[in-house]
Amino acid sequence: MENYDVVVIGSGPGGYVAAIRAAQLGMRTALVEKYNTLGGTCLNVGCIPSKALLDSSEHYHQAKEQFATHGIEVGSLGIDFPQMIARKGEVVSQTTEGINFLMKKNKIDVHHGLGSFVDAHTIAVTPAKGKATQLGAKHVIVATGSKPS
Questions:
Q1: Ranges of each domain in the chain
Q2: Which residues of the chain have pLDDT under 70?
Q3: Residue 66 — φ and ψ, nearest 5°?
């Protein structure tokens, strides 16, 4: 069993920032994430992807409604929805890669799998495939987000 000063469960905006800060303060830190990519709901399927699509939609709106006011003529205007989705994917990918970089830079060990308490100082990490491992922790930060009831 590997032992850490801090184990953070959840890699969303609260979790990955908490892990970075703990590492910056000199603590041996691990981050546990149940999904394959870091960043949580906001980065992977919520805030960031929706904002990327909204940005593309805003560009379309400007071309359709506002360019003429500036003397800019646009011929046939259309939407390439697969390209919009591809761009959204690139934005998400760049951001998750940025979080991975920050984990490496700050020497934070990332463990992919479902994190659960065995006791107050032991976290079980159960990957989608394979065998569960355990992490010892002096301190645990639970940053798993929330779901409405």
A1: 49-105
A2: 149
A3: -120, -20
